[in-house]
Every structure is written in structure tokens, then in C-alpha cells.
Amino acid sequence: MREYCIKPAGRDDLDGARAVMLDTVYRDFGTGYVPRWHHDIIDPAAAYLAPDRHLLLVALDAADGEVVATAALDSRGPAHPPNPRHVADRFPSGTTAQLRRVYVRPEHRRRGLARRLVTELLAFAAADGVYRSVYLHTDPAVEGAEGFWRSLGEVVHDEREDPGGQEIVHFEVPLHSLAVSTLSPLTS
């Protein structure tokens, strides 16, 4: 049985978090690093540690302290373009908590890490008091991603249904759906 520690990322965790994120965009998304989409991966301290209302969480394998999963939240709503205007209008910056970089290394999946990380992000957003909605988008081609997010939220737009649309599904997760912080060790 493996044990994990989930915690807010500190400066010492950033290299491991960046490695998880970059491995994911190369392996799972097949896009590699694209500056206009992934600038936060290169400088997670500026994106998530410096702003008060942003958060980067990491899951550490208790056996060796390796970062095996990440999850982040920021106060930027989805931009138009590239996202549909009605999605951007529904989730304005400042009052929208956007979930980002919920990534788990393949050998650590199916152990509850992603759900636990999202629970902690929702608790953070609820405690903030300013966030009114929680938004995310996902690539349904990534194994398990669409099903996971459907289990937590509601589809607000599926671009696969748009003529010439991208392979992106946009979700809203209820702000208080899982928002109970525990930040204690997880055994799976």
C-alpha cells in the first residue's frame, strides 16, 4: 500500500511539479510545450505561489518524496479566443477559480490522488470567499479525463459538437461539491 502526502507546493517542489506537468503535455497530450498554453509550467512560482488567490498542490510519494501529481487553481477565467465567447463570458476572471494542471503520473493513477487534489482546491476556492464559480477544460482524448470530470461537474460546452471545433470539453464544478480540506496523508 502506498502512502502520499498532499500539500501546497513550496519552492523545493517546483522542479518535480514542472517535470510532472511537462511529462504530461508531451506524453498524454502529444502537444509538447506550447508557450501560449503552458507558460505557467515553466514558471509555476510566478503563476501559483506569488499570487494570494492562486494555489499549486503537489502529491508526494511518502516512500521517496517524489512529486507524483499536481493540481493548480488560479483566478483567470477562460479567454476568448481560443475559447467560445459564451464560455468566457460565463466565467469572468477574478470571480472564477480555474482548475489547471490536474496531472498524475501514470504509475500513480487510480489511487484517488486527482479527486483528493481537486477536493483541496475546491476547499481553497470556497475559503477565498470571492470565487463564485469553478471552471476547467479538458482534452477528452486523454484516457480517463472526461469521465473523471463528468463525475465531478457539468459540461457547459463540448467543442466536439461545433463545426471545426477543437477537441475540448468545458466544465463547471460546483464550488461546494467536495470542498472539505483534509490535507492529511493518503494511503492507497
Query: What is the spatial order of strands in the main beta sheet?
Result: 6-7-5-4-3-2-1-8
Mean pLDDT score, rounded? 93
The general outline is globular
The fraction of residues assigned to DSSP E strands is 25-35%
The secondary structure category is: alpha+beta
How would you explain this protein's 3D organization?
Helix content is 31%, strand content 26%. With 188 residues, it is an alpha+beta fold. Strands 6-7-5-4-3-2-1-8 form an 8-stranded mixed β-sheet, sandwiched between helices. A hairpin with a 5-residue loop joins β2 and β3. The protein is globular and about 45 Å long. The termini are close together.
Quick recap:
By secondary structure, this protein is an alpha+beta fold. It has six helices and eight strands. An eight-stranded mixed β-sheet has the order 6-7-5-4-3-2-1-8, with helices on both faces.
Can you lay out the helices and strands and say which pair or pack?
Blueprint: E1 3-8, H1 14-27, H2 35-42, H3 44-49, E2 55-61, E3 67-74, H4 85-90, E4 96-104, H5 113-128, E5 133-138, H6 145-152, E6 154-158, E7 169-173, E8 186-187
Parallel strand pairs: 4-5
Antiparallel strand pairs: 1-2, 1-8, 2-3, 3-4, 5-7, 6-7
